[in-house]
């Protein structure tokens, strides 16, 4: 029966978040607002981290990379979803779907690796502060970032090639973008190899940074317990709190979406988790790091003052600028 239903799929139909026509304008307005906040907030963090000399440190280099990743992650999926929300035609070509899958998996995996690098930075800063500048450098962070890009790109390429080789019995994707889970659900046969990769190689590439983060914070916890200074304790907790919150937001949704048996998949719930992962988390990350970080808030104030002075000078002395 399955063999008779096999067809060569040249395009997919993305069903979106909801099939109710009256919900489409509401979804469009809410998602567009969150998308704009996410892009503007993260772009502002990238600008501040690169323009303010006081933030030219390894930690803020990694933070700027994380903000860049968040912009890329949400832009891969949301603009297309917004267009489809107000459109009758919700198709995406096979090649564009596979490209979207590759870039989404690459950028999503990269976010975990950056958070692991940031955890190592915090570990050295708290547990070995006297040697911090000798151990953690901008050059080291750059090497870690480039190596991580290579690893996650190869991992995503492997997944994408395996999905391309599948035979599909339909083209209606119960999602608002091309993700691996709903695509596997369209396969005519159970893609055992793909599922095994998710729970083996996928765990090694995607979840190993999470275990590295847990190990780093276990060492940080021991160091904090040994601190006899209340001021040092508060500083250590303040340094780690924003990062811990971002890690919980990311891996809570990743584990919920991907690292579970296929028999428990609920594509409707997965769409809700996916909108949290692709829009809400990138929107919250810059808010978390700016509201709870005195250095970032100070840099934002200095940037605001520079812009105000520049506007005043351009108004009073236009010939000088």
TrEMBL record:
Protein name in the entry: Olfactory receptor
Quick one: which gene encodes this? LOC101645772
Keywords on record: Cell membrane, G-protein coupled receptor, Membrane, Olfaction, Receptor, Sensory transduction, Transducer, Transmembrane, Transmembrane helix
- PROSITE patterns linked to this entry: G_PROTEIN_RECEP_F1_1, G_PROTEIN_RECEP_F1_2
Specify the domain of life of the species encoding this protein: Eukaryota
Q: How does it sit in the membrane?
A: Multi-pass membrane protein
Xref: InterPro entries: GPCR_Rhodpsn (IPR000276), GPCR_Rhodpsn_7TM (IPR017452), Olfact_rcpt (IPR000725)
The similarity annotation says: Belongs to the G-protein coupled receptor 1 family.
Chain ranges of the G-protein coupled receptors family 1 profile domain:
41-289
Where is this protein primarily located?
Answer: membrane
Q: Which residues cross the membrane?
A: 26-48, 60-78, 98-120, 140-162, 196-215, 236-254, 274-292
Subcellular location, in the record's words?
Cell membrane
Q: Is-annotated flag, keyword Transmembrane helix? A: yes
Query: Would I find Cell membrane among this entry's keywords?
Result: yes
What PANTHER family does the annotation carry? Answer: OLFACTORY RECEPTOR (PTHR26453)
């Amino acid at each position: 029966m399955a063999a008779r239903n096999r067809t060569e799929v040249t395009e997919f139909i993305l069903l979106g978040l909801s099939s109710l026509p009256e919900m489409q304008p509401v979804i469009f307005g809410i998602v567009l607002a969150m998308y704009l906040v996410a892009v503007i907030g993260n772009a502002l963090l990238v600008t501040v981290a690169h323009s303010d000399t006081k933030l030219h440190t390894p930690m803020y280099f990694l933070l700027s990379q994380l903000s860049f990743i968040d912009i890329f992650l949400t832009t891969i999926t949301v603009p297309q979803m917004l267009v489809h929300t107000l459109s009758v035609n919700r198709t995406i070509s096979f090649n564009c779907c596979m490209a979207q899958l590759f870039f989404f998996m690459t950028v999503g995996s990269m976010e975990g690796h950056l958070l692991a690098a940031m955890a190592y930075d915090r570990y050295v800063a708290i547990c070995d502060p006297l040697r911090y500048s000798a151990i953690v450098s901008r050059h080291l962070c750059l090497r870690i970032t480039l190596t991580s890009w290579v690893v996650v790109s190869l991992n995503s390429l492997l997944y994408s090639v395996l999905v391309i080789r599948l035979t599909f019995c339909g083209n209606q994707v119960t999602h608002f973008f091309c993700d691996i889970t709903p695509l596997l659900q369209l396969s005519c046969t159970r893609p055992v190899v793909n599922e095994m990769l998710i729970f083996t190689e996928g765990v090694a590439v995607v979840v190993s940074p999470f275990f590295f983060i847990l190990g780093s914070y276990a060492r940080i916890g021991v160091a904090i317990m040994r601190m006899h200074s209340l001021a040092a304790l508060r500083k250590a907790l303040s340094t780690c709190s924003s990062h811990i919150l971002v890690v919980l937001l990311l891996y809570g949704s990743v584990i919920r979406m991907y690292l579970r048996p296929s028999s428990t998949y609920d594509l409707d719930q997965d769409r809700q988790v996916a909108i949290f992962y692709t829009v809400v988390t990138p929107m919250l990350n810059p808010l978390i790091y700016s509201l709870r970080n005195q250095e970032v808030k100070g840099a934002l104030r200095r940037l605001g003052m520079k812009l105000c002075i520049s506007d005043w000078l351009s108004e009073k002395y236009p010939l000088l600028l």
